[in-house]
Amino acid sequence: MTDAANSEHTFAPSRDFVNQANVNDPGVYDEAERDPEAWWESHARQLRWTREWDTTLEWDPPYAKWFLGGTLNVSDNCLDRHVEDGYGDKVAFHWEGEPGDTRTVTYAELLSEVSTFANALKGLGVSKGDPVTIYLPMVPELPVAMLACARIGAPHSVVFAGFSAQSVVDRVEDANSKVLITADGSYRKGNIVPLKESADKAMQGTDKIEHCVVVKRTGEDVAFTEGRDVWYHDLLDGADDDCPPEEMDAEDTLFLLYSSGTTGKPKGIQHTTGGYLTQAAVTHRLVFDLKPDTDVYWCAADIGWITGHTYIVYGPLANRATSVMYEGAPDHPDKDRLWEIAEKYGVTILYTAPTAIRAFMKWGPEYVERHDLSTLRLLGSVGEPINPEAWLWYHEHIGGGNCPIVDTWWQTETGGIMITPLPGMTETKPGAAMRPFPGIKPVVVDDEGNPVERGESGLLTLARPWPGMLRTLWNDDERYVQTYWARFGKAIYFAGDGARLDEDGDIWLLGRVDDVMNVSGHRLSTAEIESALVSHDAVAEAAVVGRSDAQTGQAVSAFVTLLSGQHSSDELRRQLREHVAERIGKLARPAELMFTDDLPKTRSGKIMRRLLRDIAEGNEIGDVTTLANPTIVKQIQQEAQTARSS
Ligand code: WTA
Prior knowledge:
Helix content is 32%, strand content 23%. By secondary structure, the chain is an alpha/beta fold. The strands form 8 sheets. It has an 8-stranded mixed β-sheet, with helices on both faces. A 7-stranded mixed β-sheet has the order 5-4-17-16-18-19-20, sandwiched between helices. The protein has a 4-stranded antiparallel β-sheet with strand order 21-22-24-25, with no helix packed on it. Strand 29, helix 18 (570-583) and strand 30 (592-595) form a beta-alpha-beta unit. Helix 4 crosses helix 6 (141-152) and helix 7 (165-175) crosses helix 8. The two termini are 26 Å apart. Bound molecules: 5'-O-[(S)-ethoxy(hydroxy)phosphoryl]adenosine. Residues 259, 305-307, 382-385, 407-412, 433, 495-497, 509, 511-512, 518, 523 line the site of 5'-O-[(S)-ethoxy(hydroxy)phosphoryl]adenosine.
């Protein structure tokens, strides 16, 4: 193991990189620190406002309002503005389908399709303020649908296409949306994912949906319910392409994005218009050093997650970037697919997740070496702590040893990047997210909320509001306060991550400190998986923990006790794993599932998840005699041993 945390080795950007960087003056940190509001304001001014704001920040902890009184439209900023400036023919997306079909979408085309679809949505009765649920794969219609919603002021709620029908039901019900946008299917690893089937199942589970818009992607036969279902292309045919953007208040809701929390119910994280777009645009421009006229930028995430919202759709489009967008799996038809695409389009900036990088490492550098990646000039990482080995491999094998790497820490809640190197000035350390973005104020604290010294670890907090921050949880202010602003007081945001300050004061992220897991960079809640398991007829009780996994970062380990009269079997194990996939999505399916007669509990009846985590990891376990049922531990250990070796 490379102990990069203690290594002297830092990576400075080359002189050439520094000279051409969008920002290379360390003075920006002081400037932003002296007057954070003025700093954010200067970046808000780069957007097109229909009315200037009166108040930059109104902070009534824990509620923030940014650019109060200002009005603008996000779709206008992402599209009309550029077309009017003469960039209509510039490519917004080089889109590539998994089977190899391609589409090139220019800014003018995007504007026209967004406007037409916005009118079509109005025709379906969608007005300003009505949440629209979008359940689409990575096809160009996904950003189109989001921008069309933004154009008419309807908040979108995108549900990741890998999520189950039940997840769609939960989100539709919570958001109270009447329109669902989906596709007949999509391609993944050479197979067709029958998305419309899931959507139909979802619409059996909720009666809220009045209209279901279906994008034709695969052309497979799908069931169609007259009066409710309508083809996307038919809607476009009947609609006008002139749709003036709605003038939105800076604080109007742009979107909801549901994310896993520490309890079973996903949280509707609510983002607004002016502050979010300001932070999306400035972080995208400075962290990725974007040069709109020459760069080909590729964020290889899925738009169903916040990374895709901010760094495939809103940030890049606000900055007039040309992006690559890819529908499918990185190993289809072969393990060099991403590198083939990167070479074909001459990608200059690549943003991906450590779990993907570890997969590339496992597959071996020969897949990378088949292609010329010399156009790459900057690499990014997001989603989980990047281990130094993966960082160094990324640097050497993908970046050819000369691309700065930006390891970016942020969350669905933060809206945009918060802790990151700035590539034209930060000397990076493999595995560290390094420094706050200018204007951001992270403080690592101990359990009492006191800042830790250099060289110590603690909990990550944010001690100052920022423009892209969530405003609340949809219809649940109380949970908003409880989750983020209760632990250290109303003005200190508790992120739920552990962090370490090194001797230089640089920040290393250490992973979640709560019952949120991070599997392949995706957030999952242990409580949500537990309640999925318990909803199965055979199950009495379940406990779920995340154990470390060399590939996916963490993996789901489940411990299950059955109702009396039920018998454990491999078949039941298979059924339970499928049951979780069906309730939540395949990525939540337990990697291993152990049957046990009981779960280890304290005398007050609390499940000892920490002990289960140690068992799942194969760690030594300490004294268990204080448990209510100490004898059960041996049995669970044996089960876990068998599961690990099978
Ligand atoms: C984790 C994704 C370490 C962290 C943008 C956070 C990271 C959660 C990093 C948010 C990073 C994200 N280093 N950990 N660079 N980036 N995380 O909401 O635990 O899907 O709290 O947002 O991912 O996940 P989310």
